[in-house]
Amino acid sequence: MLTGSTRLKAGTAQKLICNMLTTGAMARLGYVYGNLMVNLHLKNEKLIERGISIVQRVAKVNRTVALATLEAADMKVSIALVMLCARSPSQRPTAASSALKAVFARQLKPSRSQLAHREMKNRGIGSAY
Q1: Average of pLDDT values for 84-101?
Q2: What CATH class has 8-108?
């Protein structure tokens, strides 16, 4: 950070806020497992390697199993993880998107403010925003 540069400081603050908002949105959509982004589009070699390492780390399998499962899941990390967690690598799950949201949503703990907002909404207090 440069001393006296308010323009750079403002840009850094904007970047932090944008990162925070998009990270929260990805988590709410169920694209996150723990601290890993699992909704990857494996378009190049670097991303393929990242997908393999995520599947290896989360499912605790070796590289060969991770790659084979990714290929069976059309190179979709989240579907491969569901397949390995369900222990059905030969079958691609039907309704994969809803299964993914259910599996990954369990990993996310709602914040106190989210719990309070839900409680207020359930009781009909306040306005929904």
Answers
A1: 56
A2: mainly alpha
b vs e for 38-58, b when ≥16 Cβ sit within 10 Å of the residue's Cβ? Answer: bebebeeeeeeebbbebbbeb
DSSP H helices in 1-129: 6-29, 45-59, 63-72, 77-85, 96-105, 112-123
Residue ranges of the domains in the chain?
A: 8-108
Q: What is the average per-residue pLDDT within 66-84? A: 90
Put residue 17 in one of left, alpha, beta given phi > 0 → left and psi -120 to 50 → alpha. Answer: alpha
In the DSSP assignment, the letter for residue 93 is P
C-alpha separations of 115 from 20, 109, 118 in Å: 20, 10, 5
Amino acid code (one letter) for 46? K
